[in-house]
Input
Amino acid sequence: MHEIQESGEMYLETILILSNQKANVRSIDVANYMNYSKPSISRGIGILKDDGYVTVDDGGFLNLTESGRAIAEKIYERHRVLAAFFESIGISEETASADACRIEHVISDETFSAIKKFIEQNKV
Output
């Protein structure tokens, strides 16, 4: 397994989001959701499959492995918490979401935990 890149984290997060909305997710759904080209998604999914984060069944449906789901849930939680925090301090929903999307991949566990603790203690 290689260290997962930001784009891989984004694909995993997108698969998680889509799988919460519909029973079956294909690469084309990921491409449409992210507004990326099908070849880009196919390449990224291939890498995630090779690294054991995603499986693709005979019908072309994508499924997160246990390790893929763990990463996706971690990134998605960071996105939700950071976006909500930014909105609570007056940032527009669109900007809050866009900023959270960038920050969620690089923020340290320590800083994220401190933000979560601050939110919980201050009922933000």
Summary: The first helix runs from residue 6 to 21.
